[in-house]
Structures are given as structure tokens and as C-alpha cells.
Amino acid sequence: MSVRTPNSDEIQALANDFGMTLSETDAESFVGLIKGLLPAYESIDRMAEPKPLVRYPRTPGYRPAPSDNPFNAWYWRAEVKGAEDGKLKGRTIALKDTTCLAGVPMMNGTAVLEGFVPDIDATIAERILDSGGTIIGKAACENLCFSGGSHTNQIAAVHNPHRAGYSAGGSSSGSAALVASGSVDMALGGDQGGSIRIPASWCGVYGLKPTYGLVPCTGVFPIEMTLDHSGPICASTADVALLLSVIAGRDPLDPRQFECHTQDYMAHLDDGVRDLRIGIVKEGFGRPESEAAVDEKVRAAGARFKKLGAAVEDVSIPMHIDGVAIWTAIAAEGATDLMIKGNGAGTNWQGYYPTNMIEAYARGWRSRPDDLPDTVKLVLFAGEFMQRFYHGRYYAKAQNLRRLLRKAYDDALERFDILVMPTTPMKSQPLPPVGCSREENLARALEMINNTCPFDASGHPAMSVPCGMIDGLPVGMMLIGRKFDEATVLRASQAFERIGDWKSM
Hints:
Layout lengths: L7 H10 L6 H12 L2 H9 L27 E8 L10 E5 L26 H8 L3 E6 L19 E2 L2 E5 L5 H8 L5 E5 L6 H7 L2 E4 L20 E5 L2 H11 L29 E5 L10 H16 L3 E5 L3 H23 L13 H13 L6 H17 L2 H23 L2 E5 L15 H9 L6 H6 L3 E9 L2 E8 L5 H12 L8
Parallel strand pairs: 2-3, 2-6, 9-10, 9-11
Antiparallel strand pairs: 1-3, 4-5, 6-8, 7-8, 7-12, 11-13, 12-13
Helix pairs in contact: 1-2, 7-15, 9-11, 9-12
């Protein structure tokens, strides 16, 4: 496309947005000066853009009929077979519908991106295919991934496989529901505030948010560059370890990986916990929103590690409570700049920019801003207000404070190998009724994140492990480990899993 020269009225309007006053002569002067810059843009327009190579054949696939999608957990079905051999040979995988798969529609749960078709494979999708996995579709997710409930997807709410009419958790709602229902062997989720661990907790599966920077997010729709995580959701600890071993590792196209240290995640799965020290985090229990039965179930699960030979003690980390506030300022202002005003990419970072996604999303939301969900509007209004009137001070301070939050957990993890708390303070809740108030809709989207979101800010690995049932609904126990020590988290999860059927605990 060609780049046109702005007119003086447009320059005046831009100046007004920045609180400047220009005369007509000034505006005309800047028009001429900008015209001198445009040949650079025309040159860029003529250059061929480098793109990651798409190496595995596929067809566009189809939207499954309701009869083939009982939990509304699929957005799109399309089979892409990977290499002839590899760690994932014979395994079926669903991608969260934030993850680019070339030639296959991607919606990110939102009307403003509907109809978009990526032209690249996300790095993690490519690694799955290179390892022999078969991707069989895109899992439904929440509207622009701004919900811990499963009721905001533009097409339909995702139902909990354990009880229709109840939330599957979000925002990786379809990923967890597909694994829990046995529709796929494995799934990928994304996590900026708990979006892997919340649905894993409520659907009764295993979900790991890796250490920040361990798994690349190239080709995955972002929310906030310093909070973005991708990771596995599976039906067993061993499968989480297997999928992590495939997708983890440095990607030169993702600057979020300024630090990245991998391990052999399968080697020590069966070592048990006899030499481990487990800390039960006091501040993760008894929150205002906590259900006493959930707290009791997770405490009982933590105590089981003692029977397996681990040392188990209570530990207090007061700053865990403050982690929610730190995360909130980063998420609200950072997402406003990157995901909304920055059209899902922003500027000032070196990495791969998916230009066709940027263009499609920008055209969608800027032409139909009313179609953004209330969860995103809330973040946009709050984030823009804080930026305009407080000039990014609170975002900056929160980024500085996250170092103290990280240190608070690091200090505890010098005494303990694993920290334990409820993943979500309550079990799955009923889906809010259609036509409910905005306040109820947002409450069901955000009420469950207070234990999960601090670890998106701190960057520590955190995994939800099913540990019991209450009234037929799963309860998740969260295991938190040292940075880049997923192997120990997985080892503890495997030891707990081997105690017996979690549904009878």
C-alpha cells in the first residue's frame, strides 16, 4: 500500500491531542517536512518482509458443529501433522486460539479479530510439529484473554466438563476443557494473570505457567510484554514435562527471553520428595473471597507431602498480598499501551512482529471499538486515565516494586524447595446469566485471580495440580518453585499424583 501525505487539518488534530497549539502556517510547514520522510516508508513498502518458513502442509479446516463441540471448547478444527518421528509422535495437541497457525483462522475470542488468518506458525507450534506432534485445532479462549472465567468468548461460553453451566476457568478455557474431556492429549495455554492455572484448577487437569522467558511467545497474541507466558495444560504431570521439554528454550525472535535456562524435565520425575522442603504459604489461604472447603482441601493435600517424606512447614510471605496491586498497575497500563493503543505489538522491542495480525487487529478494534469486551474497556479506561493524569508513574513504580515481590518469594525459596497454596480461592462458579449486570459479569471474570497473578509479576514457575473434589467440582493446589527450576515443581507434582486418584481425595 502507498503512504499518503497528511493534510494540515490532520496535523492540527494531532497537535491538539498532545496539547500543542499550531498556527495554520506551522501546520503547513510540518506537512512539508513530513512529506520529506515518506520516501523512507515507500522504500519499506517495496521491500520483501522476512517471515518464518511454514514447513508442514495443512488445510484451513472448519468450525465444528455444536453436536461435535459439547463444551464450546473448540474454536476451529484443522489437522496439521508434524514430523514423522519425535517426542510427540502419536500425540494430539490443541493450540489456544491466541497462537498463530498459518492458514488456519484465529479469533482470540473476539469479534474484532474474527476472519483473521495468520501467515506464520508460532514458534511453539513449530516446535510441536518438529517433534512429531499432530495439531488438531484451536481451543476457544476468552475475549482478548481478559477473563479468569469462561463466559466472555464472543461465540459462546465454555462449559466445565465436570458440570454444564459452570465455568471452565479462563482465559485458556477451551484448552483445559478439551484436555479434561479427553478430546486431546495435550494443549497449550497462555498466562498473564493465571490463565493456564485457573482453568486447570477448575477443570481438574495439570497446568504449568513456566518461568518468565523459558517458553517463547513469538507468534502468540500478547497482552503485556513483561507478563506474557505460554505453557502446557495436560492430563498428567508426565505429559506436562514432555510438552515443556519440546516448547522450552531460547528463540532469537523473542526479546522476552533475556534469560532462559532449560533442564531435563523428564529425568527426575520419579525421584520423589523425600529430600524436599515444602512451605505452605499462609497468605494464600483465608482471603476474603476464599471458600473454607477449598482451603481445607489444599491444606490436607499439602500435608500429604509429609507422608511422602518431605519436610512440611507453614511460611508467611506478607508481600504475596501486595502482589495483586503490583500486577494490577502493570497489567492495566501496560496492556493499554501494548494491546490496545499499540495494536497488539507496540514499539521499542526487537523481535518478530506479525504484521498481518497487527493490521487485522488494528482495523478491527479501531473501526468497531464498541465491540471490545467490558473487561478490556475497564482496563483501557483505567490504564489510559492513569497514563494521562499520572504520566506512567504508577506503572513505573509497580515495575520497580516487582523486584521486591520477586525477592520475597526468592527469600522463602531459599528455605523451601516448593511453596504451596490454593490455585484459586474458590471452586468453579456458575456461568453468569446472559444479560446480567456489567458488575456481575466482571466479578465472574476477575474474582479468582488473587493467588495466581502475583506469579506473573514475579516470573516464578507455578503449576496447578488437581488435589480433590468438592460437590463434584475439582480443586487445584498450586506449586511454586525457584526460577528456571521447573524440574523440581514437576517432581513434586508427580509424587503427589502417584498417591492415588485425586478425585477421591
